[in-house]
Amino acid sequence: MQGSRRAHAPPLRSFRQIVEQLSYSEAVLDIELGLCLIYGMHSSPVVSIEQIRKSFGLFEAVRGVSCRIEAGECFGLLGPNGAGKSTLINMIYGASRRTSGKLEVFGMDPNVSSRAIKARLGVVTQENALDEGLTVRENMELYAAFVGVPARERKQRVRDLLGFMNLAHKENEPIQTLSGGMQRRLVFVRALLGKPELVILDEPTTGLDPAVRHLLWGKVNQLKAEGKTILLTTHYMHEAEVLCDRLVIMNKGEVIASGTPKDLREAHASGYVAVFETGEDFAALRTGAGSRSYQVLEDSSGLYVRAPRLEDLLDLQKEHGRQALQLRPSNLEDVFLKLTGPELNVDA
């Protein structure tokens, strides 16, 4: 009797069997991709947003935003915390329904065709969300099954992408043995498993050291060279300058500026900046700079004086006997602070 029960007990399933049984999703995704073909392969723009709004009760998180993301570009979405960036991204890939306005991704409405859209994009999320009970390879093969990668292709695709992100030597290592930078690179691998046409990078390098950050910038540029369209959100203004072809700056749910990084610098913060140490008596400097119509910004980190020419700032230093901590060309951070204000948003 005991032997009979053992003979009829369901066998324990291996990790491989679990993955193989997930292949049913391939058929579902084939249907979704067929719908993509009916709509037509991605036309320009990849994302089209017209007067989109999103409200949560009485609070309007996104207020009449309009922009276009063209095929093959890296498009930046910048703004302080609480500006509406995450809400906008959630609407783009169908995680949240818009209140009003028009939104198309690959020519489709995310409110109607979110599955078909998700099949053509990959997301590097803010949180790594990796299964620490599995190895690197097992994590990626399991996710590859979820996104419909054919069973015969999974192992090789995972190996190729691990190699692309310089992680091939960690293939059989448990997740908890990886450094923070390695885990972040693995999230890039996960986002690319489905061969996406649009890659959303949601603050991809937050908390990483400069070496890893530069490595990931190089990988993003490689993806763009391969024809991928990139949507980037970041709080690192230098990162946006390095990677973005065009960008918008949002504040309080609205787009307050848009253009190339160079155009935005020239329009809102051209020239050179001197940074003076915090705690000094700024009164004479502020008066001297103001009398020359230089832009002055003061916050807890110091006094920032922007002038049309480097020579103007050198003269200002000499006149007041003050040595600046830094003399530099203006950058996107100067644009950001001028447009959004140096004060911390109460919702940040």
How would you describe this protein?
- With 348 residues, this protein is an alpha/beta fold.
- The model is unreliable at 1-12, 23-29 and 35-42 (pLDDT under 50).
- Strands 5-6-7-3-8-9 form a six-stranded mixed sheet, sandwiched between helices. Strands 11-12-10-13 form a four-stranded antiparallel sheet. It has a three-stranded antiparallel sheet with strand order 2-1-4, covered by helices on one side.
- It is globular.
- The protein has 14 helices and 13 strands.
- It has helices spanning 2-8, 15-21, 24-39, 85-92, 110-118, 136-146, 151-164, 180-192, 210-225, 237-243, 261-268, 283-291, 310-320, 332-340, and strands spanning 47-56, 59-69, 74-78, 100-105, 121-124, 198-202, 229-233, 246-251, 254-259, 272-277, 295-299, 302-307, 326-329.
- The longest helix has 16 residues, at 24-39.
Label this structure with key terms.
six-stranded mixed β-sheet; Rossmann fold; disordered N terminus; 2 domains; four-stranded antiparallel β-sheet; alpha/beta; Alpha-Beta Plaits; 348 residues
The name of the CATH topology of the largest domain is: Rossmann fold
Strands of the biggest beta sheet: in what spatial order? 5-6-7-3-8-9
Q: Gap between N and C termini, in Å?
A: 66 Å
Query: What's the CATH architecture name of the largest domain?
Result: 3-Layer(aba) Sandwich
* Rg from alpha-carbon coordinates: 25 Å
**Number of strand elements:** 13
Number of helices: 14
CATH level 4 superfamily of the largest domain:
P-loop containing nucleotide triphosphate hydrolases
The biggest sheet, with number of strands, parallel, antiparallel or mixed sense and barrel status, is: 6 strands, mixed
